[in-house]
Task: inverse folding
């Protein structure tokens, strides 16, 4: 299980990769289950994604990227 407190913020991701926009919206491509990674499309590429808590996110869910740890993004669903 990933330590959700150890994720870098999106702002530090922008500082690490100059020129990267501050856009934080992505889409679930492969389902994210509680405490299990799925796949997220973000910034025209694919990342592993995990959601905090006991949520399941099906493919197509629009998410906000909160941070990252290595190649895994911490996301939460966008509720409209």
Result:
């Amino acid at each position: 299980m990933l330590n959700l407190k150890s994720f870098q913020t999106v702002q530090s991701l922008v500082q690490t990769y100059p020129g990267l926009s501050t856009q934080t919206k992505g889409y679930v491509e492969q389902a994210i289950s509680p405490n299990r990674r799925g796949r997220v499309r973000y910034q025209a590429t694919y990342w592993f994604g995990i959601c905090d808590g006991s949520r399941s996110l099906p493919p197509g869910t629009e998410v906000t990227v909160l941070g990252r740890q290595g190649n895994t993004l911490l996301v939460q669903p966008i509720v409209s």
Q: What stands out?
A: Strands lie at 8-9, 25-30, 38-42, 45-51, 62-69, 72-77. The chain has one domain: 4-77.
